Amino acid sequence: MRLAIAYDVSEDSNRRQVYRTLQRYGAWRQYSVFEVDVTKTERVELEDELESHIEPSDGDRIRIYRLCESCQDNTTDIGSEPPDEQSNVL
User: Fold this and answer.
1) How far from chain centre, in Å, is Cα 44?
2) Per-block average pLDDT, block size 10, for the chain (90 residues)?
3) How far apart are alpha carbons 50 and 54 in whole angstroms?
């Protein structure tokens, strides 16, 4: 299944852990947004790992959207290319 994952994490070290976790599963699309392809089992593992990297009491939040096939086919990119992971300063 394809997921779009957006995150707001206040502390730099936690944000880096979230970024690195998501990087193992998929592609960085925009700042604080990834697209990943995972199985049901991997999704559970990913959610558990992400939860361990955030502090909800600090306002940290991760939002996961499941992208159906129709949604994937109707995605439009406007503007510049996705960020270059090599130049990422996280």
Assistant:
1) 14
2) 96 96 94 95 97 96 91 75 57
3) 7
